[in-house]
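step=predict obj=Radical SAM domain protein n=366
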Amino acid sequence: MTPLLKTTALTVDYDQDTRMLQARGAISVLVQPALNKINQRLAEEKPALVREEDIVASTWLPPIPSGPFKRLVLSEAKIAIGRFVPQTVSIEVTRACGCACDHCLIKDGEGELETEEIKTVIEEAQDLGASIITFTEGDPLLREDIFELIRHVDPERSVVNMFTPGLEMTPEIAIQLKEAGLYNILIGVYSTGPEVHDRIRGVHGAHKRAIEAIEMALDAGLLVTMSVHVKGDGVSEIFDLYDYAKDLGVHEFSIWEGIPKSSEECLSRIDREAILRFYRKVNRTPGGPRVFASTYFEGQMLGCMAGRRWIHVGVDGKVSSCPYIGDDWGNVRDRSLKEIWSEIRESGDFDDLRSDCPAQSQHLDG
């Protein structure tokens, strides 16, 4: 057993052979339920990657063991007594992007946070307990300081994920991302058909460049996730997309529920059941990438994370509970992230556990 965490009130041991986490100590009763969920996933599902020194259960979780995972465990103890922690903080770092996607939420605005402002957000997010920091929107690779921002994240406290459409990737950039400390890169692929992906991205050749970006990132030794956002009419394609991800050799295939523009695009109960069946079948089958599905992770496992385990900082500094609900809790240019998080929690808007996506429900309710 490897001591993963040891304080006066809590010790967490990790058995590398059995892949089991066990809590001991005065507050172990608060932590063990969360560890049991992780243990169940480790026992029933294949991990994204097993390395000599650690195991990556999912690219959306810090490796076990690691400093960020220790913080995740401690934050679960706080959450168990009602002191919610923003374990994941996503930050939109730029409006710049080579794509012209219809679903883009920030293309019509102006301005973005400066380097020092984002660094302050990173520091405040880590002080609040964030274990996962994600850089996103539009294409972070178009920020000249992206490597500096990645390096500013203390690796003993948080891992860094980053979304990119892949248009700007080069072998040299992939190596620089690895050297800067990027944990996982997420590259969206909307279809196995180049013409469909290119139409969604609004750029001819976007599909080819996304695939090349995946290959470059893998060659550089990065963790790589191929991601897709699905709506009601696209669930059937996840099977072919997964086979595509398997052929590419990525570590995880990430399925997110797309935000509908109308009730017709909402996922039905049957759609979600199909995603869950796919999730369970693939993750219990040896070989190939692991599957992450927000339908499970933010549904059956943890419930909606918005305002409970997740906080989002927009490109202009506006803070929301997640990128999709559209709420506005203030701006990091005016107040600290800690003050804003306190207001979110004190509002009572996120007290109830939800197993559905509020952004989806907005269209169903309408």
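step=describe
The radius of gyration is 20 Å.
step=end
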